[in-house]
Amino acid sequence: LSSNVCILDFHGCMPNGLFERLVCIFINQSASNLNALEPRIHKVWSQIWFGSSVFILLKSFTKNDVIELSVSQTGHDHLDISTTFVPILTSALRQMNDQIHKGRLKWSFRFRTDGKKVLDFSLAKEQNLKPWFGADAFLSKPNLLGGI
User: Fold this and answer.
1) Which residues 6+ apart lie within 8 Å of 115 measured at CB?
2) For 76-131, how does the pLDDT look when each residue is reduced to its tens digit (9 = 90+)?
3) Measured over all CA atoms, what is the biggest interatomic distance in the chain, rounded to whole angstroms?
4) 134 backbone dihedrals φ, ψ, rounded to 5°
């Protein structure tokens, strides 16, 4: 997998506890894979395994109101689940926005490529930026889901 990074930007207003909730959601998703290794959880970052060779690294940058998500593969096993991570994030954010924040939570996705170029959601999707988008990606526009 590439070393592209998904950047979730809350534009100066990331709610307390949001990072921890996202970690729990991804751990729950990971638990459905019997081969998943134990997650490593820390205050500002977590490593969550999906199988024995693919993991995500979630990092919280509270000063910048940003959460970064990257995907890494350590072995030869190929687990094609990376295209589900942005939809999982978006679904969780929509639910939190509806239930807790009464529609006031704003966010946007950006993607930093291997070459350090930053793309907005639309351009990344148009280019099928790996590992986030592909033929099986089922999210069309985050703007329709509560983001900016």
Assistant:
1) none
2) 655 567 788 889 999 999 998 998 888 888 999 999 988 789 999 999 999 888 88
3) 44
4) -175, -170
